[in-house]
Amino acid sequence: MMIDQATDPKETEIILNSIKSSIFELCLDSFACHVIEKIITKYEENDIKNIYEIALANFLQFCNNVNGLCIIKKIIFNAKEIGTKEIIKKIILENCNLLIYQIYGNYVIDTVLEVSYYLK
User: Fold this and answer.
1) N or C: which end of the chain has fewer CB within 10 A?
2) Neighbouring C-beta atoms of residue 91, cutoff 10 Å
3) What pTM, to 2 d.p., does this model score?
4) Neighbours of 25 (CB within 10 A)
5) For residues 62 and 29, is the Cβ–Cβ distance under 8 A?
């Protein structure tokens, strides 16, 4: 995958700029979401803050979509900044009763139970 080969900052900038205007759609697409997952895994949170912001702003919608769910799970596992983790924790606590009964949302609760930070 091209993302794996990008080591130069200019290459990274080209990749991230190419998805900037369509992050929301890419996160919900059955093929493109895999690219977004790879980006979340490869790059530092600070470099891809726009992906985190869009996913967190649309958290419940993403949790109700099989592809969006994969993005949310990657973010939960890869979030390193305390502020981001606190936002995720707050969203989940406020929506726990909704998520538990959703076809895909319940997997978010499972994921949170796997990541000890969110249980503190």
Assistant:
1) C
2) 18
3) 0.92
4) 10
5) no
Burial class (CB in 10 A: 0-12, 13-18, 19+), 3: middle
Taking only the tens place, the pLDDT of each residue in 43-71 is: 999 999 999 999 999 999 999 999 999 99
| CB-based contacts of 108, cutoff 8 Å, min separation 6 | 63, 69, 72, 73, 76, 92, 99
Residues with Cβ within 8 Å of 45's Cβ and at least 6 positions away in sequence, in order, are 52, 78, 79, 80, 81, 84
Check: CB of residue 26 under 8 Å from CB of residue 36: yes
- Cα of first residue to Cα of last residue in the chain, in angstroms, is 37
Q: If you ran DSSP here, which 8-state letter would residue 95 be given? A: H
